[in-house]
Amino acid sequence: MGGLVWDYLGTLTSRQVKEQSKKMANLKHKEQLEKSRNAQLMEDAKKREDNLNESSQQIKDTLRQKEERIEELEEALRESVQITAEREVVLAQEEQAHAQSEKQVEDLLVAMERVKQELEVMKAKLSSTQLSLAEKEGHLTALRAERRKHLEEVLEMKQEALLAAISEKDANIALLELSSSKKKKTAGRGGSPEKGKG
């Protein structure tokens, strides 16, 4: 077998040997280039992988930050919704209280108007009563004056009657005294002769 190879090599020309060597060198060079290219590709792939890993980590970090931010925003939103709900409750209570106050004011106004009307009626009645009372007072005053006049007239009549009675008694007394005096004189005249005779 080795002899045949050597025989074959022996038959090759130096040119063919050179060409073959050149081809081998080219093949080695291509192989070297291919290895270098493969190494470069591997390095590039590794870099890309590292970059992808780094990018993936950055994306993960970004996603985590965004998730945390979303959680913060959701918490803030929940708080805002709760605050809004509480404010709405307070606002509803204030509106209800305001409505109740308005109704109370309306009721008070109605009551005041009713009292005002009742007061007007009472004033009218009072005015009528005062007028009637004034009329009655005038009538009573007139009656009192008339009664006083009547009493004065009666008193005057009594005084006149009393004076007349007194005058009549005085006259009777005077007549009696006069009659008694006459009787005494008459009796005195009748007793003197008897005294002389004795």
From TrEMBL:
Q: Name one GO molecular function term.
A: structural constituent of presynaptic active zone
The yes or no answer to whether the keyword Protein biosynthesis is present is: no
GO BP annotations listed: neuromuscular synaptic transmission; regulation of synaptic plasticity
Primary localisation category: cytoplasm
Report biased composition (Basic and acidic residues) as residue ranges.
Answer: 18-51
For this UniProt record, the keywords arranged alphabetically read as follows: Cell projection, Coiled coil, Cytoplasm, Cytoskeleton, Phosphoprotein, Synapse
Which residues does the annotated region (Disordered) include? 18-60, 177-198
* Protein location: Cytoplasm, Cytoskeleton; Presynapse
Would I find Cytoplasm among this entry's keywords?
yes
Q: Which InterPro entries match?
A: ELKS/CAST
Which cellular components does GO assign to this protein?
Answer: axon; cytoskeleton of presynaptic active zone
Determine the domain of life of the protein's source.
Answer: Eukaryota
Full protein name: Uncharacterized protein
**Species of origin:** Takifugu bimaculatus
Q: What's the source species' lineage? A: Eukaryota, Metazoa, Chordata, Craniata, Vertebrata
